[in-house]
Design a protein that fits this description.
Elements lengths: L1 H20 L12 E2 L2 H8 L7 E2 L1 H15 L6 E2 L1 H12 L8 H4 L7 E2 H15 L7 E2 H4 L1 E2 L27
């Protein structure tokens, strides 16, 4: 009797689940889930006037503030331990990225203000799909499976694949 009851409960649960999901094709019109990156969490905090747009001026000010925050001993260089502390505080931890070597272009174990600014500017360009120098919430949306474009030194990659701005290039 007990096995029969468990079988009946399991079958009922499966039927309810099948009805709730709507069967094949039921999710075609649902919105796709989006991802939130560490970059976005930082960029959004730079919208100081609350207009939901991070302007070029706010980006520049944000870069300066973040470098100063990361450079805990104020020697003009971000050492690995300082970067780790900044990453934990601002970006939610090291597992979220960006990674220290993304910033430390010459791999000398110190990130200068120039290296920091260059990497942040590159990340801003990755998100700035309309290329106007500012960032909006819509530009931050990345669907599941789509990540921040991978940059390779010396290779220009357009985030507009398939769009007339890409000139057919990825």
């Amino acid at each position: 009797m007990r096995l029969k009851a468990l079988t009946l409960i399991a079958a009922s649960a499966a039927a309810v689940t099948a009805c709730a999901t709507g069967g094949p094709g039921a999710h075609e019109n649902e919105p796709i889930r989006a991802l939130l990156s560490a970059d976005v969490m930082m960029f959004v905090s730079w919208d100081t006037n609350g207009d939901l747009i991070i302007s070029a001026q706010e980006i520049e000010a944000g870069i300066g503030r973040e470098f100063d925050r990361a450079d805990a001993n104020h020697d003009g260089r971000i050492e690995p331990i300082e970067f780790q502390a900044w990453q934990d505080a601002v970006l939610g931890g090291s597992q979220m990225g960006p990674y220290r070597l993304d910033f430390d272009r010459n791999v000398d174990n110190a990130i200068t203000r120039e290296e920091f600014a260059a990497e942040i500017h590159a990340r801003v360009r990755d998100y700035d799909t309309n290329e106007d120098g500012s960032l909006t919430r819509a530009e931050f949306v990345r669907v599941v499976g789509q990540t921040r474009p991978v940059r390779m030194p010396g290779v220009q990659v357009s985030p507009h694949v398939g769009d007339e701005r890409s000139n057919g290039r990825p």
